[in-house]
Amino acid sequence: MAKRDYYEVLGINKNASQDKIKKAFRTMAKKYHPDLNANNKDAAEKFKEVNEAYEVLSDQNKKARYDQFGHAGVDPSYSAGSSGGAGGFGGFGGFGDFGVDLGDIFGSMFGGFGGFGSSARTRNPNAPKKGQNIEVTIGLTFLEAALGAKKTIKFTRTESCSACSGSGCASGSKPVKCPECGGVGAVNVTQRTPFGMVSTTKTCPKCHGSGSLINNPCKICSGSGVRQKSVSLDVNCPAGIDDKQIFVIKGQGNAGYKGGPNGDVEVLVRVTKHEIFSRDGYDVYCEVPVTFTQLALGDNIVVPTIDGKVQYSIAEGTQPGTTFRLKGRGIPFTSGRGRGDEYIRVNIEVPRGLNSKQKEKLREFADSLQDGKNYTKRKSFFEKLKNEFSI
């Protein structure tokens, strides 16, 4: 029987990207996997067919030859009447020839069994690894966050033991290869599952995945290779940072493993509220109380900004609630280029505790005003009421 088209096998078209090819393979391989289709010869054959198709289409060179010459381009011995086959089918282990990490594909399907692929076997337990990051919280005032500030943070981190230079061994000794796993850091375990007996790879219980044992541990660090140390570090909080944001200090975290780089310190910022200012992004907002006379006649008022006080000229007849924009007076951008704006909202503060003479003066002043000329909004409002409700 002639082989089916590889694109047809995976259910994709010839223009499919490598990501789509891999996704299609995952779907089809799960569908026809022998453990989910016990005693189903048809599923087993399709599983081989799916693997063969992926082995070709996932390789750019083979895919190019297949697109040009068909099956003959990747299998010179192929003829239209041959049955073909992926070869090497014999349980899970036989699929290594396809270069496919079945642990990656079926790991989520089989949960903690995780031993299908070669990833656990090929992982180097003694490879350098980056140290863990450390999280620190710091409190800033509104202005410190807006303009930047220098602060001191305190935390505890692991550092390489100076007595053994991080090896964990006492002077004159070295780690030895773990006899349980042969230095691999993992051992093969056969487990009974709902799908039958499954051979999986587990972390070596004797060396805990390190691949080596320390028979003569360092007395200072007890064989761990690291020591805990309290650290006091001066940091520059970037201008423009906001509440609940994080900035990172590279290389100041926990010590790396086997010569790997240190981790980082992630600083979480908490900003206290300001009595006058508030912010939205990089813009600052402030409400300034003014008198009726200042709005009616116009005035030069003092306006607070995060950089200090500035003067602003209010035009005659300015209405309460009017908002003015002070360009470039807001929060500096964390990128270091430019800054936001400040928005000033003016509101009348109504005077209290007037004496009789002041009240009389106000009544005389109010009587001298004309609705049509001096209170245009008031006149318009009542005219609308009259038209709507026949008042």
Q: Your description of this structure?
A:
With 391 residues, this protein is α+β, with helices and mostly antiparallel strands. Among the domains are: 6-100, Orthogonal Bundle (Helix Hairpins); 278-348, Urease metallochaperone UreE, N-terminal domain (HSP40/DNAj peptide-binding domain, Sandwich); 356-389, no CATH class. Helix content is 25%, strand content 25%. It is built from eleven helices and 15 strands. It has helices spanning 6-10, 18-32, 41-57, 60-69, 102-106, 119-122, 142-147, 292-297, 356-368, 371-374, 376-389; strands spanning 134-140, 149-160, 176-177, 186-193, 196-203, 212-213, 226-237, 246-249, 265-271, 278-280, 283-290, 299-305, 308-314, 323-326, 342-348. The strands form six sheets. Strands 10-11-15-14 form a four-stranded mixed β-sheet. A three-stranded mixed β-sheet has the order 1-9-8. A hairpin with a 2-residue loop joins β12 (299-305) and β13 (308-314). α2 (18-32) packs antiparallel against α3. Mean pLDDT is 82; it is low at 80-122.
